[in-house]
Amino acid sequence: MVDHVLHNKDTIIDYLAILNNYPVFFVAVHCPLTELERREQARGDRQIGLAKNN
């Protein structure tokens, strides 16, 4: 299992090439920005603003 944010098509292509001998499933997780910002604040170990900029 790989837990990673795939920011662009090139990253997806790279993963598919590396994992070409294995079954691959992509799962999208969506969260409202307000909730991401709330969690970012609550964690205390994240730079504030990353949720909005990613």
Terminus-to-terminus distance = 22 Å
Find the structural class using helix and strand composition: mainly alpha
Major sheet, described briefly?
Answer: none
Q: Assembly type of the shown chains?
A: single chain
Number of strands: 0
Could you list the spans in which at least 5 consecutive residues all have pLDDT below 50?
none
Question: Taking Cα atoms only, what radius of gyration do you get, to the nearest Å?
Answer: 14 Å
Helical fraction equals 40-55%
**Outline, from the CA principal axes?**
elongated
Secondary-structure element order, as H and E?
HHH
SS element count, helices = 3
The average pLDDT score comes to: 89
As a percent range, the share of strand residues is: under 5%
Describe, in short, the structure shown.
The chain has 54 residues and is mostly helical. The chain has a domain at 25-54. It is 46% helix and 0% strand.
Secondary-structure map:
Blueprint: H1 9-18, H2 33-43, H3 50-53
Question: How would you describe the overall organization of this protein?
Answer:
By secondary structure, the protein is mainly α. It has a domain at about 25-54. About 45% of the residues lie in helices and about 0% in strands. The chain is built from three helices and no strands. The chain is elongated, with a radius of gyration of 14 Å. Keywords: Membrane, Transmembrane, Transmembrane helix. It holds the Pfam family CPT. InterPro entries: P-loop_NTPase (IPR027417).
